[in-house]
Amino acid sequence: MSHSSTPAQDPPRRLPSSIRHKKTPVPEPEGKVNVLLSVVFAGLLSGLVTTTYSLSYAVFVFSGPLSGYLSFGIQSALLSAMLVALLVALGSSFSFSIAGPDSNSSAILALITGSIVTAYQSGQHTEGLLPTIWMAIVLSSLVTGLFLFLLGRMRLGRLIRFIPYPVVGGFLAGTGWLITKGAFSVMTGRTVPLRDLPKLIESEWLYLWLPGFIFAIVLFISLRKFQHYLIMPALLVSAALLFYLGLWLTETTVTEAQEQGWLFASFSTTQFHPWKAFSLSQTHWWLLLEQSTNLMAMMAVVSITILLNATGIELATMTDAELDRELVSAGAANVLTGFFGGMIGYISISRSLLNQKAGGISRLSGVIAALFCGLFLLFGAPLLVYLPKPILGGLLLYLGLALLAEWLLDAFAELSAFDYMLVWLILLLVAFWGFLPAVSLGTVIACLLFAFNYSRVEVVKYVFFATEHSSNVSRNFREKEVLESSAHDIYVLCLQGYIFFGTANSLFERIRKRIEDQMPKLLVMDFRLVSGLDSSAALSFLKIRQLAEQHSIRLILTHLPSEVHHQLKVTGCLLEDDKICRVFADLDRGIEHCENVLLKREDVTILQSRPLQDLLAAHFPPEYLPKLEEYLTQVRLTFGETLFEQGSASEAMYFVETGQLSVHIELSETRKKRLTTMGPGTVVGEMGCYLERPRSASVLADIPTTLYKLDRKSLDEMQDKDPALASALHQYIVRLLSDRLTRSNQELRVLLR
């Protein structure tokens, strides 16, 4: 869909494949004179295209019953083009940005003005139509501008990114439909409701819109196929020449063309001053209040469009976009233009890329484009009667068809079936009910869609048993045997994300099924990756507690955030002096507690008081144990005493007989992390001793501890005097290290599932 990156095209809102790929920035011309000429040319070209679009939007909004006020609409559109283009050019994060009235905002503005006209036609009001229309334009620009400005100042632009992609697509497809329908009204000079669509093929209507339709198709095909920035201006000029060639060949005068509906009637925009011409008392404020919902839709759609346009420019030019800055500049520009009765405008992806590719590498080109629109506003009135309706209407028709094709045809291959159906649903709502139901239902669908999709995200990131991922407590071989025999007694669930009613219930069902299939004795739930939970999820955890209580299962909760801890306490899941549910600071401490519970049940704690020979006998040849003690020196540590420091020389290894040691690594001057805890029957410092490298961590006593030291000198002496004993010791250390490596591999497999 390379057509969406065509710089002369106005409505690209989706980020198509051509923009998603990297673009080569346009090389800057060499020499100051060449640069200045390029900037001026780009500014004039951008100003011409912006003026043409602005006139089309003015005709679009002021079509049908409002066509008599078209002079006011043209002034409003050109005023917006001048002021918005100027302020956005100076304040945008892009140096080549071009801004002005846009199809999306014009479509909603046409809805607002159309609703006001309908109220007048129904006989509710007889006077004050134009003042009310003018105030609607003023309020829409002011309110939307203020909203954009505050959104950007509070740096909330990123929140727009959370709107689901298909919902945005539905809004834009609906905009395409409104513009398409409005284009026929522009070309025929009559309102075309859905029930009157068959009349378009009647001869009195057909000759008015068919030329514009052909022009729209030529635009559509050409801009999808060719990428040059001069395609759009060339087609506009060529269409105008062909139109007047047709008038010359048929010997039709300008006056006759006006009477037949091909050209606009004569009017002037140079002396219209609405603040002087109107009194606020002439405005029907209740009619404006009834449009508040459409104004809300306007704010939402304009915000989304600015995001999409800025992102599209960013990807197409490899230039960083500051979304909040774009919102602030567009907001300030619309507040200013609103005071003068100008329509809503903002940055345009198509005109900005046109400007950049034409050589507009500085903000001066945007200023020149704004001045061009301003000069046309002041002196271009005599030229407006020569603008053919088929060209302006055809341009609008092209914009509408491009949006419809992008979201109904091109998106078919890129969106899922559900997302594509959602685009159609919102489009139909816009077509038959209007933007208010579409925006309302779209918002509801967005929430439901988020809840549905998020509920499909697995709330459990990792699940394993303690044998696959044990605690950082180094156990002796006897303790390891006991824990391995109780393989399925410790069931661990590592949770993730924000837990709400959809995911919490699936977690409850998963735990209940596990209990039915193979009942664990201890259930561990780690909350380190959990960002929060809602009240319904807290009730699900209460149900999990009740289920555990029924089956005599202990619950262990780790890494519990303070907010989550409070919620679980309020719902009754956590109690004072709780014997069912315990809370630990981290997963390691929680699994350690579970292991100690199992060891206590098997009465393995008796090992605490056994001598070193008994602790090593299971995996060390008994005949060598008395000889080993001859090379060992007893060491006693008090509570908190350090065995060795991180970075110190490795001169010995130690066999733990009683007590407990903790190994800590220093991450910074103030932060330490426990790597492992070692109890009776374990060995500490063996790797440094063998490798003769500085200690990689510090070791200190958690409780009074008794160890036996084997220094490097004694080990060398053992190898010389008793090689068989040294070999037995080496085999014991190799088995110990192999066991550690095996456990590390098991833990890696669990984390990489």
Secondary structure layout plus pairing:
Blueprint: H1 17-20, H2 32-61, H3 70-91, E1 99-101, H4 103-121, H5 129-153, H6 165-188, H7 203-225, H8 231-249, H9 254-259, H10 274-277, H11 285-289, H12 292-317, H13 323-339, E2 345-347, H14 349-357, H15 363-379, H16 381-384, H17 389-409, H18 417-432, H19 435-455, E3 460-465, E4 473-474, H20 477-485, E5 490-499, H21 501-517, E6 522-533, H22 535-550, E7 554-558, H23 562-571, E8 581-584, H24 587-601, H25 612-616, H26 625-629, E9 633-637, E10 642-644, E11 652-666, E12 672-678, E13 683-684, H27 686-691, E14 698-711, H28 712-721, H29 723-751
Parallel strand pairs: 4-12, 5-6, 6-7, 7-8
Antiparallel strand pairs: 1-2, 3-5, 9-14, 10-14, 11-12, 11-13, 11-14
Describe the structure.
- The chain is an alpha/beta fold.
- The chain is 58% helix and 12% strand.
- The chain contains 29 helices and 14 strands.
- The strands form three sheets. Strands 4, 9, 10, 11, 12, 13 and 14 form a seven-stranded mixed sheet that branches. Strands 3-5-6-7-8 form a five-stranded mixed sheet, with helices on both faces. It has a two-stranded antiparallel sheet with strand order 1-2.
- The chain is elongated.
